């Protein structure tokens, strides 16, 4: 069961990271940033979308295995415990995604802060 939760964590984190990368890339175009190599940008967007597709396929395979494991676990639990188990899993998934999103935003903010400090020192 622990291995299953570990795999789920990895997939959730990967999905969140890729989704946020795609949002940033799409935001770059909508902000009209000059100096962007459009061809390289388009290739990067295509690559991230391909990675999202691959991650989705992995997630589907994981969900099938997770459903089988849930059936085994739930066969040994009371109806009240089953409800608690399902609530725990959903809350855990949501919190894992939120944690990854916060970590990604912090990493981006740190990078921006470093860039600003470098510009300030160059002035």
TrEMBL record:
<protein>
    <submittedName>
        <fullName>Flagellar FliJ protein</fullName>
    </submittedName>
</protein>
């Amino acid at each position: 069961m622990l291995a299953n939760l570990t795999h789920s964590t990895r997939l959730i984190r990967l999905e969140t990271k890729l989704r946020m990368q795609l949002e940033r890339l799409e935001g770059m175009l909508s902000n009209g940033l000059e100096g962007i190599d459009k061809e390289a940008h388009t290739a990067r967007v295509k690559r991230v979308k391909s990675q999202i597709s691959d991650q989705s396929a992995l997630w589907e395979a994981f969900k099938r295995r997770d459903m089988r494991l849930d059936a085994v676990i739930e066969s040994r639990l009371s109806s009240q415990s089953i409800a608690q188990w399902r609530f725990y899993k959903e809350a855990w998934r949501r919190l894992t995604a939120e944690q990854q999103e916060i970590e990604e935003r912090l990493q981006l903010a740190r990078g921006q802060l470093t860039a600003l400090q470098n510009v300030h020192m160059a002035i």
